[in-house]
Amino acid sequence: VITKAQHCRAEIYLDGIGWVATDPADVRKVMLEEEKDGLPAEDPRVAAVRQKLFGSWEGNWIAFNDGSDIALPSAQGPELGFLMYPQAEVASIRLDCLDADAFRYAMTAREITI
To answer: Any idea what DSSP says for residue 9?
Structure first.
């Protein structure tokens, strides 16, 4: 079960430059996981990662979607601004997709030949 392994990456448009890669998830990961009690955004280690990942990202990834304002079929909950994590509803109540202990799922991959 990989309920804690999601990753988010983004692109922003800068006038005069165009689309620029950013990796906010890895910056946040450093803030949350580098030290037991976390690191503030102004910590030099966070600043170094932010500088390195502004304009680049790690290349081993698969995009599952790029939608916005997503209405899930037959869902009772509101539209989603974006879809980063799997979503589920039980008895018309949307589960907390960030609660890895209460909402468990698995993503698997396998090679296919055509």
So the answer is: -
Q: How far apart are CA 88 and CA 111, in angstroms?
A: 27
14: part of which helix (H) or strand (E)? strand 10-14
If you average pLDDT over residues 34-50, what whole number do you get? 90
Beta bridge partners of 94: 89
Q: Cα 37 vs. chain centroid, distance in angstroms? A: 22
Q: What b-and-e string marks burial along 1-26, b requiring 16 or more CB atoms within 10 Å of the CB?
A: eebeeeeeeeeeeeeeeeeeebbebb
Inter-residue contact 28 to 49 (CB < 8 Å): no
CA distance 112 to 21: 30
On whether the CB atoms of residues 59 and 67 are closer than 8 A, the answer is no
Q: Check: pTM over 0.85? Answer yes or no.
A: no
Interval 51-87: pLDDT, tens: 887 777 767 767 777 788 999 999 998 999 888 788 8
Pairing of strands 10-14, 18-22: antiparallel
